[in-house]
Amino acid sequence: MPDSPSVATVKISVFRRLTNSCATLFAIAAAVLVILPLMAIFLYLLIKGVQSLNWAFLTQLPKPPGEVGGGMANAIVGSGIILAMASLVGIPVGIGCGIYLAEYGRNAFGDVVRFTSDVLNGVPSIVIGIAVYSLIVVRQKHFSAFAGSAALAIMMVPTVARATEEMLLMVPNNIREAALGLGIPKWRTTLSISLRTASRAWQEKRPRCCSPPWVISTGAGVLISRRQHCRCKSIPTPCRPTMTGTNKLGPGR
Amino acid sequence: MGVGIEVRGLNAWYGKNQALKSIDMTVPANHVTAVIGPSGCGKSTFVRCLNRMHETIPEARAEGDVKVGDLEVYGADTDPVEVRRRIGMVFQKPNPFPTMSIYDNVAAGLKLNGFGNRKQISELVERSLKMAALWDEVKDTLHKKSGASLSGGQQQRLCIARSLAVEPEVLLMDEPASALDPISTSKIEELIFQLKQHYTVVIVTHNMQQAARVAELTGFFLMGSLIEYDKTEKIFTTPADKRTEDYITGRFG
After folding, report:
1. Is residue B11 situated within a structural domain?
2. If contacts are CB pairs under 8 Å, which of residues 183-202 in chain A contact chain B?
């Protein structure tokens, strides 16, 4: 059979090729249709906005509504401060948690931690924002970068923890065995061998779960640290975050 | 210098499964001792019990008297990390640390154990690589090339050098050549022959010719028991036990 292609198989292959081309064409058309509006918006933004993207935009404070000029310095600095403060707490706690889950957490307590962090991962940022609002903002009676950072840190911990765990689990066990077999203590093996191997593997091939912590949503953080416009009548200090709408970046997953 | 190993009544379990049944064995210093037997007979478990690597597997445990030189391996106040430092291990699959250079791979056991003297480390690295017959092949790329970039046979010799760098008294080899081609295998075998001047070597092997070539003593394991343990020549020519004879003549296993 294989060495005598019948007429029927040739006919089928022509039909198949036609269908294939049609499907490919359709897929390309659909892709263009989806990308076109996006590109249009992006290009429009670029054309209209690129002349405003200058040093002053990055370094100056916003002018009062109605006036031309000014910049976004306060927002940029504010976002930076929130992110820095949140990372300071969120990343070490998250990585520590991930190490525990991957290397020691094969027990009931580990399962609880894993489940909790999965649940926390699934909580919309706005809910965490409200929780922090009622816990910190209401008590302090004002918005603050601290409150924003707290919300952001709460969102960071489970994401970083699970990402770290996944990364560590990708490290083959024989690497760990090699280190233990050399008489290297387990904690040292984890920090200097497993984590190092994991981070290298992560740099080379980023799995989807491992979005870098710095793209994690600043949505709730921004929401919480946002100041009402009416309050901004006094001269805004550069470190006062008055950033924009909520959930701009969305969760980094 | 190598030291002898005394094993008395060693039992090992994986969960409820007993993998080793009261093993008694005396391994003389500065000899090569081979452990042979069919798959799943407990020979790997046996060597992993000698340096307490067995217990790193979840739910695995072992008990019995194992004395390596003057070290009580299962003594109540014996630190398993200390045991593993004094009893080196080479695994079946070459497992160099993938993120480290050749030099760092060999130096890892020293550096991560807090051994700080750079000059001494570099001397030990050179000495270990020479002993593992790898020095001439890698001396120009010690810091440039990663350990993972070497060929399989070179990687295995790198792993041997890495174990030797921490100056163990005993070297355990768990099928060190089973993943290698015949040329690399013969290099490793030659190396084992050299190593016994300085170390006591215990080698697990599937390959009976290999046992006959490198070992002075051979132990035959079957279903978790040590069936026969004698001079290699005796085991392969006039075994005392019928099961040993069946195995080495290829009637089963």
Report:
1. no
2. 183-185, 188-189, 192-193, 196-197, 200
